[in-house]
Design goal:
Length: 205
Amino acid sequence: MSTFFIPGDAIASISVGGTAPETGFFSARIESVEAHPSRVHSRKIKVVFDSGFSIHDWLTTPYDAQGNLLAQYNNNGELSKPGRGCLAQIKKVFLSAGYDNAQMAAQGVTDDWLIGKTVYLEWHSAKDLGAQYGEIVNYITPKQFESNKANDKVPAIAAATETNARLVVKRMDQLASPSNGVTATPAPSTGMKLPPPPSAQNIVN
């Protein structure tokens, strides 16, 4: 006889295994898109890497589900500059998912288009960010991803971290080497006379 029952949606929502990857370019799958309970412009997207590691990312939409411009992005009936910035970020995700401009222009887009789609990411690890958690810093197109992989390209932040690490190791090796060219100041010889310590009478309180 069973001693507990876990609903299917609850157990399915839990990811097991998969550690955060090192900085790099990765393919991943968008598993879900959810509206924020109070911020009408915010959408939480669950992104699952091929390794099983998952993370939530956020998108900001200046339009509601009916295509109406939200008040905070409405500039006298036109999309405001901040709103255009939000759309640019959203468009990157759709381009990463393989949609082209003609498809998007013909029909408009909804977040349903993203569910289950593979996207391509620039990921920065917590180590390279100097933070507690890593993060998705960019969505790239399939073509960019393939080019990066073919050329063994890594994000600039990873290259900089690796260069700094090599410089530190090189400097340590130089300091440890007797032929590093650095002239050390010689220690006083045992025959050198040092001045006597001050007497109690010479100490000024």
